[in-house]
Amino acid sequence: MNKISMTRRAFVTSASAVGLVGASGLALPYYSRANQRPAFTHGIQSGDVDATSGMVWTRTDRPSRVMFEVSSTENFANAVRLAPLDTSPASDYTVKRLLTDLASDQDIFYRMVAADLADINAVSEPIVGRFRTAPASKRDIRFAWSGDTAGQGWGIDETGMKTYATIAKHTPDFFLHSGDTVYADGAMKDEVDLPNGDKWKNTVLIDEKRKVAETLDEYRAQWKYNMMDKNVLALSAICPTFYQWDDHEVLNNWSDSKDLTADDRYTEKSIHVLAARAARAFHEMTTIRYELSEPGRVYRKIAYGPLLDVFFLDMRSYRGPNGPDMQETMTPQSRILGEQQIKWLKRELANSNATWKIIAADMPLGLVVWNDGTKKVGAEAVSNGDNGPAKGRELEIADLLRYIKNAGISNTVWLTADVHYTAAHYYNPDKAQFQDFNPFWEFVSGPIHSGTFGPNGFDMTFGPELKFIKAPTAEQGQNLPPSAGLQFFGLVDIDGATEQLTVRLMDRDDSELYKVTLDPVRSA
C-alpha cells in the first residue's frame, strides 16, 4: 500500500462525528439523486485489529449491496475494491467483514457505499472510517479502556456521552470496552429528578429503551441506541473498539441460577432464551471476530506487535451458578472461566513473546461483588468475601496465578471495569491467604457513561493493596449521574524504546487522577 498522506491526529481533527466524508475532502463518485436512497443508520466501526487485518462494520436502513474500498491514503488513490456484501433483515441489515492482507503499522482508510437491492441504481452517500494496524516492530502504543455504557437509566442527554469524546482526544490505537457495553435490563425515562432539584433529561430515547429487552429486536436496539450518540459515533469512526461482555448485555448478575419467576418486568422467564438472543445481538452489532472452532466465542487474543498481547476473558458464559461460592474443590459449579478457557489462556500466555500481557477481565479479582447486594450474600464475581484460603471461583484463579508463576510468565497486567468507579490494586502475596503467585497490578476504570457507585470491599485471599481510588463519598451517595463528573477511563502507554508501561486513570473532564509507570521484567 502507498505511504500514508496524513497523520492520525490530522484525520481526527478533520473528521466530525457524522460528517466524516464531507469533511475529509474525498473525491466522490456519482451517487443517485433519488429521494429515497439507502442510508447508513448507525455509523461505522472497526475492531479486533492486528498487524495485518481488522474487522469493519456498518448498518443500512434496507436490504442493500454494500461496496467496500480500502486504501492507505485519505484520498483513496489506488484503493483496493473488495467484493460487495449484502445486508438483509436476517441480521437486522448489519454487515461486517475482516479486512486482510494489510500492511503493518499503517493507517488504513475504508469506505462503504450501499446500493438498494430493490433498485440497484439508488446509491447511498459514502461513509468512511480509519484505523491503524498493529506494528511489526517496537513503537509507542497507546490504548484506552473503560466499561459500563448507558446504565441505570442515564442515557443520551444534551451533552451526550462525553467520556467517549474525551478518549478520542488522546487518539488511542484502540479502545478496549471491558463489558456492560449495553444495559439491556435498564429501562429509561424521559426525565429523572436529581437530589439537588435539577432534572436529567434523556433527550434521545427510543421505545425499546423504555422497557427491559426480551426479544431479539429489543436486544439489537440496545446497541442501536448507544450508536445514536454523536460521541460514540465519532470515536468509532477513528478508533477500533475491542469488545468483551459481562452481565448487563443480558440482565443483571445472570448465571444459570437466575430466576425470573417473580420479576414482573419479564414475560420471557428463561435466562437461556434471553442469553441466546443477547449473544446474537452482541455479535451482530459489534466488530468482534468470529471463531470457527466455537461460533459466538468472546474470549480471544489480539496480538498487537512485539510489545503487547491482549487476552480477552469471558467471565460470564462458562461460570457455574451464582451462589455462596464456598466449594473447597474445583468443580463445574465452582468455575468462572471454565475448563476450556483456562486451558486456552494458559497455553496462549505461555506462547506469548510479547513484552506485556494485558489480561482484560470483565470483573475484578479481589473486590467483593455480591449476587444479592441488599442482603450481601452470594458471589457474583470471583471473591466470596470470606478473606480466607481460596474457595469456590477463587480456586480457578489461584490455579491460574500459580501457573503464571511456575511457567515464568512475566509482565501480566489485569484491566477491568464493572464496579462503576476507578482504582489501582496491587496484589501482594505477602498480604494474601493464597500466596503461590508473583505480585501483579489490576486497574479498574469506568463507568464511561452510567451511574457511579462504590467503593466495594476487599477480599484478602489474593492480598490486594489499594493504591488509589476515586469513588462517590458517603455524602454524595450512590448512582450518581454522568453530569456529576465521576465518569472514568484509563490510558495505557507503552514506550517503544524503554518498553515501560504507564497507566493513567482519568475522568471525563480529562483530569489525570493517578499515574504509575511499570518497568518490564527482563527474561534471563
Descriptive account of the structure:
The protein is α+β, with helices and mostly antiparallel strands and 524 residues long. 15% of the residues lie in helices and 27% in strands. It has eight helices and 25 strands. It has a seven-stranded mixed beta sheet with strand order 14-15-16-19-21-20-22, covered by helices on one side. The chain has a six-stranded mixed beta sheet with strand order 13-10-9-23-24-25, with no helix packed on it. Strand 17 (370-372) and strand 18 form a beta hairpin.
Topology:
Blueprint: H1 8-14, H2 20-24, E1 40-47, E2 54-60, E3 64-71, E4 80-86, E5 94-99, E6 107-116, E7 119-123, E8 127-132, E9 141-146, H3 162-169, E10 174-177, E11 191-193, E12 199-201, H4 216-226, H5 230-238, E13 241-243, H6 271-285, E14 300-303, E15 308-312, H7 339-351, E16 356-360, E17 370-372, E18 377-379, H8 394-406, E19 412-416, E20 422-427, E21 440-444, E22 464-470, E23 488-494, E24 501-507, E25 512-518
Parallel strand pairs: 9-10, 10-13, 15-16, 16-19, 19-21
Antiparallel strand pairs: 1-2, 2-5, 3-4, 3-6, 6-7, 6-8, 9-23, 11-12, 14-15, 17-18, 20-21, 20-22, 23-24, 24-25
Helix pairs in contact: 3-5, 4-6, 7-8
How many beta-strand segments? 25
Mean pLDDT: 93
Radius of gyration: 23 Å
Oligomer: single chain
Tally of alpha and pi helices: 8
Q: Termini separation (Å)?
A: 39 Å
Percent of residues in helices comes to 10-25%
Strand order of the largest sheet: 14-15-16-19-21-20-22
Percent of sequence in beta strands: 25-35%
Which structural class fits the helix and strand makeup? alpha+beta
Are there runs of 5+ residues with pLDDT below 50, and where? 1-34
How is the biggest beta sheet arranged?
A: 7 strands, mixed
Shape: globular
